[in-house]
Write a structure and sequence with these properties.
The chain is 39% helix and 15% strand. It is built from 15 helices and 14 strands.
Amino acid sequence: MSKNLTQKKKIAIIGTVGVPANYGGFETLAEHLIEDLGQKHDITVYCSGKKYSKSERVSSYKGARLKYLPFDANGIQSIPYDTLSIISALFFADVLLVLGVAGAWILPFVRIFTNKKIIISIDGIEWKRDKWNLLAKWYLFWAEGMAVKYSHIDISDNEAIQDYTAARYGSLSRIIEYGADHTMKVAVTEEATEQYPFLKEQYAFKVCRIEPENMVHVILEAFTKTSRMPLVIVGNWDKSDYGKSLKTKYGQHPNIHILDPIYNQEKLDVLRGNASLYVHGHSAGGTNPSLVEAMYLGLPILANGVSYNRVTTENRALYFSDQESLIAEINKIYTAKLKLVGEEMRAVAKRRYTWSHIAFKYELLVEEALNTSEKANVEAETKNIPYDQLLELGHAHLKTNLNF
């Protein structure tokens, strides 16, 4: 082991809402890094003071130190939130683990004026998300470039994203996905069936943020046109006009059960873990935590057939591209096929998506960052392959960003 790791190093985790985790993928990641690496390193996690009331705040959590800043971790406030977190971390941390690119504008100054090591996860291709306006997209596009150029190591959570950073920036991005073994198969109780009568029958399930890029409108409309099985869908419907309109339009349909956000893991796992089919509509991002969690539970997956989802599922799931193909897939599935797909998803997840495996990858990156001064770069070997050939091979995204 490197001499740099003979004593505990100080790691600052920047860009999450905070811990205890009750929001999303980065927060769950931070929690498991604390559990798996906390004995080897001193970890500090920056937390949003907007999400944790003063009565909820604690100075430490599972051995990690917590620091609160008076900003939201998402939206426009993520820029000052991440920026101030980075500045604060410069006073004590050896390694800055930055999750997301919102504060990346300051990284050139960190590299020039300090010897701090920077590991950054670009969190998918954030600027492509439909939820951002043109100005936000421009900033995120620019910040992504700053993040890749001025970090010591950049992380992609999916091979398709690694292809993208290689093609666009010549960067040798490191792939680290998410763990899913915090999910559990929970048996259906009499109390649960009283609250959710659909648990007695076959049903499809989906949990996500209610955003257009997750194809929620497409999925809802498809399930109004098939009687194969009902859809149970959990999300933050009241956070946007898009969600509110969908809730109004489909909330009373007999084949659709719309549920508000569920933050209790056991309650969520009862509903998710006993589904007959998991529908994953995400069209942006990289490796989506909700997808790997469903895979770990052994659910058969019917996913949007974009490159990220095919990579995550190793091209072994069922796929759709639009409303018509989704309806067709739902109508032709049968029990034996669902069982086979579910078994394959579980096998992939157990091999790739466990937190001990993910934490070990991060540990190796910390060691590498502490022992490197220059970033490894590559030139994408596929850049001169004709577009038609890339399209045929399923790698058209290497030629044009429109395919991400």
